[in-house]
């Protein structure tokens, strides 16, 4: 009895010691497919780190941005790891809101991160967020419907070709829309698409003196083309559709073309989830012959807020989720085509990945084609392809997104939406001290 009591006492002491060292970290992330998959694979992490418990807060994109921005700005401390993007990282790092990631481990190989992606997540040569996946945007299209229309998709199409193809592909009687594009309001939803698109039309948010440019003809051409295209060939209720809604439509065979994030390629080509998996082709984002294509540059990344009390455990998780090991884990469970793309050069040199992912080369070409430091045809004072890297953009971009979504829904005219956007941008830039 004494031996049993002693043994139980030792076990209890051991359990208490373990509990004293155990840590629970809270991770805020977006409800995109790759992040959902990551949550299902975290047994691999907890087996190697039994003293760390993971708590997940999974949110829709616009809600995630609002929650993590509020939390970090107010030093709320709700999250130990945040999923943020290329827009937030340089701004927040300069505010000392993020911890530098300098303990990712000897085998992490940060130099393997694609330079264009690493550059957007670094300040003064230090990495402040690790990319979970990187993306540009491109055209995904139904090869069978393109053949039926008697057309051949160029590797580098123009917007005029997209319009021509969409008109021929649209088949309302059979539920096929010629093209699906983002319409849901948000600086990272419809404005990510429309800002990148506007670059190819020669438009810009601001001139060299920070004067808003929505009253210029290039923006009128962009928004009018978009609204006309969507009314003629887009799905019903398009003003409510973001990335996930359009992904579902495309997978169900209801879109002839979809211009959106390159990360979507693994989902539209997955026969388990896509009814058109064997019919998808890929092309670069469209242009207008002005030297800029309508593609963006983004990375959903994992960062650690400076206010966390659990930095070491948080960094262990970030290292695991963005490592080469994690890529191999996904490949072993889901196949190479489903490995999170756009972050590591070694993935694109991997013969197994090249064989499994017919979209690999087009994805890398699209990422490398985007230039955040020279995003527009005319000179601009800002950095960012589908956003403007200033703190005011988050609020302003969403306001403009609401105006443009209303124009798509037919609640206002293109001219009225542009005038209101010009007024809103002028007020924001005056208040921010950019213009007088």
From TrEMBL:
Coiled-coil intervals: none
Signal sequence, renumbered to the chain: 1-19
Keywords: Periplasm, Signal
Principal location: periplasm
InterPro entries: Bact_solute-bd_prot1, SBP
Localization in the cell: Periplasm
The keyword Signal belongs to this UniProt entry's keyword annotation: yes
Family membership: Belongs to the bacterial solute-binding protein 1 family.
Protein name in the entry: Sugar ABC transporter substrate-binding protein
Organism of origin: Mesorhizobium qingshengii
């Amino acid at each position: 009895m004494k031996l049993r009591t002693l043994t139980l006492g030792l076990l209890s002491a051991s359990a208490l010691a373990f509990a004293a060292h155990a840590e629970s970290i809270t991770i805020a992330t977006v409800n995109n497919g790759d992040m959902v998959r990551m949550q299902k694979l975290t047994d691999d992490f907890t087996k190697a780190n039994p003293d760390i418990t993971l708590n997940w807060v999974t949110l829709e994109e616009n809600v995630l941005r609002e929650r993590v921005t509020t939390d970090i700005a107010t030093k709320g401390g709700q999250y130990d790891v945040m999923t943020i993007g290329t827009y937030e990282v340089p701004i927040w790092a300069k505010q000392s809101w993020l911890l530098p990631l300098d303990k990712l481990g000897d085998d992490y190989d940060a130099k393997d991160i694609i330079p264009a992606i690493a550059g957007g997540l670094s300040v003064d040569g230090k990495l402040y967020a690790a990319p979970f996946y990187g993306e540009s945007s491109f055209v995904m299209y139904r090869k069978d419907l393109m053949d039926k229309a008697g057309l051949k998709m160029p590797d580098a199409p123009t917007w005029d070709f997209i319009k021509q193809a969409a008109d021929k592909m649209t088949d309302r009687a059979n539920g096929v829309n010629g093209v699906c594009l983002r319409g849901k309001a948000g600086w990272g939803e419809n404005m990510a698409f429309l800002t990148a698109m506007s670059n190819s039309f020669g438009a810009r948010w601001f001139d060299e003196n920070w004067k808003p440019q929505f009253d210029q003809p290039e923006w009128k051409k962009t928004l009018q083309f978009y609204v006309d295209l969507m009314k003629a060939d887009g799905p019903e209720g398009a003003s409510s559709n973001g990335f996930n809604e359009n992904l579902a439509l495309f997978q169900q065979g209801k879109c002839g073309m979809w211009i959106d994030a390159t990360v979507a390629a693994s989902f539209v080509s997955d026969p388990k989830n896509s009814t058109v998996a064997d019919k998808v082709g890929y092309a670069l984002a469209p242009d207008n012959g002005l030297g800029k294509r309508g593609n963006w540059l983004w990375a959903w990344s994992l960062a650690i807020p400076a206010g966390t009390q659990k930095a070491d455990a948080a960094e262990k998780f970030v290292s695991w989720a963005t490592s080469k090991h994690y890529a191999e884990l996904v490949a072993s469970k889901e196949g190479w085509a489903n490995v999170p793309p756009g972050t590591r050069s070694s993935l694109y040199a991997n013969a197994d990945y090249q064989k499994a992912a017919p979209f690999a080369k087009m994805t890398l070409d699209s990422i490398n084609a985007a230039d955040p430091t020279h995003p527009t045809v005319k000179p601009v004072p800002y950095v960012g392809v589908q956003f403007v890297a200033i703190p005011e953009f988050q609020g302003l971009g969403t306001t403009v997104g609401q105006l443009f979504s209303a124009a798509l829904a037919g609640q206002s005219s293109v001219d009225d939406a542009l005038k209101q956007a010009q007024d809103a941008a002028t007020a924001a830039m005056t208040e921010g001290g950019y213009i007088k």
